[in-house]
Structures are given as structure tokens and as C-alpha cells.
Design a protein that fits this description.
This is Large ribosomal subunit protein uL29m. Its main location: mitochondrion. About 55% of the residues lie in helices and about 5% in strands. By secondary structure, the chain is mainly alpha-helical. The longest helix is centred in the N-terminal third of the chain and has 38 residues. The chain is built from 8 helices and 2 strands; from the N terminus they run ααααββαααα. Strands 1-2 form a two-stranded antiparallel sheet. The relative contact order is 0.05.
């Protein structure tokens, strides 16, 4: 019995020993963490101020009531091409936020019957976003052409609608095959028929022809007026500005001759 009692006491002590060691380790580790946290200064952590209220959809207070707001120009493609993809991604959201603010202020000014200051800002933001999309599309096209030999753009083809007008249809994937997709066939009919459609096409082509003819006549009359007032104008520059006008032929007309004596060669 004495031997059994001694073994029992030794087992108890052996079972308590790891627990004591673990408790000592936990206390020492926690104390080290606390000391480390106290040693780190609070200035090492910096957070930028974030605003999630509706005030971001409105103009800055210093610009309210002004007739003109100072602003810069739009981003051109050459400036955007030298930026990284991360910078373009950040710039896109900055422009998107600015456009939302400008649209909100424009709507607010229209509701209050007030003048929207510097409305050209919206045009410059839209121009910047369009240029940014073009630059991203250029990079995607170059990457896909290098890796796969294709542009990576959605395939498109020239088709005609039910009125006989041609347009580029951009194709996309469907779950149902084309031959079994009845709903797609009903809404995408790339053909035209009937006498009414042919009459519409004839009148539409006539309208386009009249628009082009009037444009040519306006340019021709403008060139004749310039030659009549300034007979010594540069013919090459005039032909580059008005490519649809035969400048050499107009020099032979009597309408462009003014009250001057032409120089003898």
C-alpha cells in the first residue's frame, strides 16, 4: 500500500508539472505582448478621414454661390498611357465621383432655377473618362494579341435591321443554341422586306444626299467668298481646309473676280 500511495502522489505531481509550465509560459508571453504594445508609439498608425455621408454629392462650400469655379483641363490619352493600371483604376473612381457630384449640382441648380457654375467641367470629366476607357481598351487589345493572336474584343458583324439600315451587331454568348433560341430569333431579324421599307430607304437615301449636297454648296460658296475678298490666299492651305472644293476650278470663274486688276506674270 505504501508503494501504491507513493506512485499515486508521483503521478499527481507529474500531471501538475506541465500545467504549471504552460501557465508560466502564457503569463510570460502575455506580459511580453503588453510590453511590446506599450513600446510601440501611437503615431505609427495613421488612418485617412473617410466620409460616407451625402455631402460628397454636393459642391464644396467655398464654391457655393460662385458664378465661375476654377478647374483644370481634361486628361488626354498621352498622359494616361504612361500611368499604371492601378493608377488608372484609382483615377476612374475619382472621375466617377466627380461626375456624380456635378450631375447632382446641375440637377439642384435646375430645380432652384439657378445658374450652374462652369458647366464645361462635366464635359471635361466625360472626355477624361472616354480617354481612360480607350487607353484601357488599347492595353487589353495589345495583351490579347500578344498572348492569343486575337484582339479580345467582342466579335461583331455588319447586319441590317428590319428597316434596312446597316449596323454593327456585337455578339455575345447564350445558354440556348442559336437554332433552338426562339425568343432570340423573334427579336433579332436581320432582314427587311415589303414595299413600305423600300420606300423608306429611297427617301432616307435622298435625305442623306441632300444633306451632303447642301454641305458641299456651303463650303463652295464660302471658298468663293474668301477668294473674292482675299485673292492672294494660299491655295494649298485652302484646299486642305476644304477638301470637297476644287479651288483651281473656282479661279476660272467670274464670280470670284473683284474690283482689282490682276497682276501680270
Amino acid at each position: 500500500m505504501n508503494v501504491l500511495q507513493r506512485l499515486f502522489q508521483v503521478s499527481k505531481q507529474a500531471g501538475r508539472f506541465p500545467v504549471a509550465i504552460a501557465s508560466n509560459l502564457l503569463t510570460t508571453s502575455s506580459s511580453r505582448v503588453l510590453q511590446h504594445r506599450q513600446a510601440v508609439p501611437a503615431q505609427c498608425f495613421s488612418l485617412s478621414s473617410r466620409r460616407y455621408d451625402l455631402a460628397e454629392f454636393f459642391e464644396d462650400k467655398k464654391n457655393l454661390g460662385e458664378n465661375e469655379v476654377k478647374h483644370g483641363r481634361a486628361w488626354n490619352k498621352d498622359e494616361l498611357r504612361i500611368k499604371s493600371n492601378a493608377d488608372l483604376h484609382k483615377l476612374w473612381f475619382v472621375l466617377l465621383k466627380e461626375r456624380n457630384m456635378l450631375l447632382t449640382m446641375e440637377h439642384e441648380c435646375n430645380e432652384k432655377m439657378e445658374l450652374f457654375p462652369s458647366p464645361e467641367r462635366l464635359d471635361k470629366v466625360n472626355e477624361s473618362m472616354t480617354n481612360l476607357e480607350d487607353v484601357v481598351r488599347e492595353r487589353n487589345r495589345a495583351y490579347f494579341e500578344l498572348e492569343t493572336g486575337e484582339t479580345g474584343e467582342r466579335p461583331a458583324k455588319l447586319v441590317t435591321n428590319q428597316l434596312g439600315l446597316k449596323f454593327y451587331y456585337r455578339m455575345f454568348e447564350h445558354v440556348i443554341p442559336k437554332y433552338a433560341n426562339r425568343k432570340w430569333k423573334e427579336t433579332h431579324q436581320f432582314h427587311y422586306r415589303g414595299s413600305a421599307v423600300h420606300k423608306f430607304l429611297r427617301m432616307y437615301r435622298e435625305k442623306l444626299y441632300n444633306v451632303k449636297r447642301k454641305q458641299r454648296n456651303r463650303e463652295r460658296n464660302e471658298v468663293m467668298h474668301l477668294l473674292k475678298r482675299f485673292p492672294g490666299m494660299d491655295r494649298v492651305a485652302l484646299a486642305e481646309k476644304y477638301p470637297s472644293v476644287d479651288v483651281e476650278k473656282l479661279y476660272k470663274l467670274d464670280k470670284i473676280r473683284g474690283n482689282y486688276v490682276p497682276a501680270k506674270v
